[in-house]
Records
---
Amino acid sequence: MKATILVGGKATRLHPLTYNIPKAMVPVLNTPFLEHVIRHLSSHGIKDIILAQSHFSQLIESYFGNGSQFGVKLRYIIEDIPLGTAGAVKNAEKYLDETFLVLNGDIFTDLDITAMIAFHQARTAKVTITLTPVDDPTSYGLVETNARSRVTRFLEKPSRKQITTNMINAGTYILEPDTLNRIPPQTNFSFERELFPLLLDQGEPIYGYPSTVYWIDIGTPEKYLQLHRDLLSGSSVQHSYPVGEEIAIVEQSSIDPTTQIKGPILIGSNCTIGRRVKLIGPLVIGSASTISEEAVIEASIIWKNARLEPGVNLRDSIIADNGRLNANSIIHGSVLGDNVTVASGCKLEPGSKIPPGTVVKPKGDS
Ligand code: GDD
Ligand code: MG
């Protein structure tokens, strides 16, 4: 079975991390997010994958190429203007002549795709949609089903008053190819708001495949941090790192013997960790990063090539590529885009989101 992965969204909710890269390339455990998705598909025997993209297509292609390095065959379909979720798949129609999978490209899940395919086939469904329970459905697509799992209603982004179930569209679909005939070509068209409700009105058999395995949409910085906390504490069966309080995984880096470590921590290659640094997990440090003496870093995700000068205090934050945190700066609960510099002694307001390339100076300095 072929799969189309939707990787063409604007990812504005992940700003400032995604001004210069797509959501698909955001690193998770120091590996682009999309690589985890592709490996998961491949582990279920799905090796023929189409990437439907619009923004930043070049960055994705230059990393993944034809897919052979990842054991899959990749093809790329590029939209001149974003066509919406269903429009993007319509755009790939020439490759889709049999039952196929569609995946939102921003979901990390342990979904049993093999079992979902069997479910779809057993019911001769036109569409099968994976459902997952969430505490708050308001930022998702609510899906009602009857006792036989047949979908009876869709409600995208319900208000609080409209919530009738906690089961939402989990962003993985199986579709029969003739559903593509209902999508207008080269037109912005949505699965969630247009195609699925239309098929439902026409009485087509649409089923919900309920699943309670690990699932998260990495759409916001908070969710992105949550994913790391979850992966580093062993919530997903997909990552092979050992888990536990004292675990530090270090890939060919130099760590001073006076460094204090409380795991779980992942440190990429070619990093240097200086004297009396305190590292408190869950924490990920990207490759080629330098953490100088007496810095204290807790519960944060640092991308590659960061430089933290002596005495930096970092907590509950995300630092994108090439971050420069000068001596004694204090950064708590903040998200820094790529190439941000924070001046010595500067304390950021908790909740700050700093766009790429910014130089942050103490208040009063110009
Ligand atoms: N190629 C392409 N073109 N991809 C797109 C486009 C487009 O115009 N628009 C969005 N995408 C991709 C995004 O990159 C993402 O991978 C996926 O489609 C879903 O878009 P989001 O913008 O992340 O949607 P959402 O999270 O608000 O809601 C969707 O996902 C929820 C589950 O996380 C909906 O499908 C909800 O119903 C669902 O509950
Ligand atoms: Mg999303």
Note: The CA atoms of residues 121 and 261 lie 50 Å apart.
---
Amino acid sequence: MKKLVLPDAIRALGGDFTFGVATSSFQIEGARELRLDCIWDTFCEQQDTILDQSNGDTACDHYSLWEQDLSMLIELGVDAYRFSIAWPRVVGKDGTLNEVGIQFYENILNFLKQHGKQAFITLYHWDLPQHLEDEGGWLSRDTAYAFADYVGLVVNRLGDQADAYITLNEPFCSGYLGYEIGVHAPGQKNQKAGRQANHILLLAHGLAMQKIRQHAPSVPAGIVLNIHPSYPDSASSADQRAAQMASDYLFHWYLTPILTGSYPALLENLPCDVQPEVVTGDMDIISGKIDFLGLNYYTRAVYRSTNDGWFEEVERNDYPKTEMGWEITPHAFTDLLIGLHQRYVLPPIYITENGAAMADQLESGKVVDVQRIDYFQTHLNALADAIEAGVDIRGYFAWSLMDNFEWALGYSKRFGVVYVDYVTQDRILKDSALAYRDMLYSRS
Ligand code: FCB
């Protein structure tokens, strides 16, 4: 079996570097009947939204199988588990805590604690309660306040049982994919809506941070952003500008306000009627101190300039690709981390997701996913390069613990280190899980 080798720069950090695996509620839990509907339930019911017409009703049935799944995670020897709480499972329409729902997560926390594992809790991984979407969703300031109320209730209850709180996972996906280009729930296609949703999401993050400080002042808290570093399609100045604009519009749009309290200058180039409605005081709330920044990295993106001076993504085939059609570009991971370190005063960074969908084949009870092992190896090496260059990186979470509902692509893409048979709900550790485990045990 192919092995994973722990790079020296990471080994040298010893216990100061956390290894984990990540999941999210809607993608694995199922048990839809035990929670309120969320925007992804509704989106899945619409025509032509999900590649295989599937939904999250059952998913990996983790709601029933959580103990078995967590035992598997313990076996892997990780230090930490990053999972998300489903807002529609823990808060009723009347805004009160649902005891059955919150107990599910308390059981997970207790289990992790008993085994000496850390819990990184994501408070929003895209499952907005549908009744809030019906009242305006992420276009309405009320949703930001409703989110803060939900976070207040949850953090008041769970307090320092968590080792880290993450407000939002990838507001780019919620705001841009969900409201601007409509490939994610709730499926709106409107530039103004996208920019507005981004702003409300950032506001929700800032308000939630205040609640976390209030109820769990000793627990580190931050946000998770996804980033696909932007490269120009050619050396022309137009393409270089296009790549820069794409990067500001799709990534720094989130990071710059959080770290500096203002949007990238590109905002002023947008027509007034697509700019978000920013109220006095919002930027102060958004830029409250975070203790860490979570980054999800999968691939790079290439852009060229359009005739109207905007940018468009170009499909390139310079590197091998994963089953997502994403180029495998570990060097871009290093460049990205070093570039951010040079541009901003960064808080400590956690890589909160990294991984690959591959064409896994289950044969004689085994999944020999050599390419996924290679992906992890080259990206861990890239991370080690960034650490050697002085970037303060504290941890790495593989996406994902197990195969799951990959949003608009349904169950057609497998990201897990554990294979899930969706008919029997059997779990089979892929070779990548065994390689990850062996690498983690090699630390002691
Ligand atoms: C990220 C999401 C995660 C998963 C991976 C592949 O954007 O946070 O839920 O879908 O991509």
Note: Residues 47 and 53 are 8 Å apart (CA to CA).
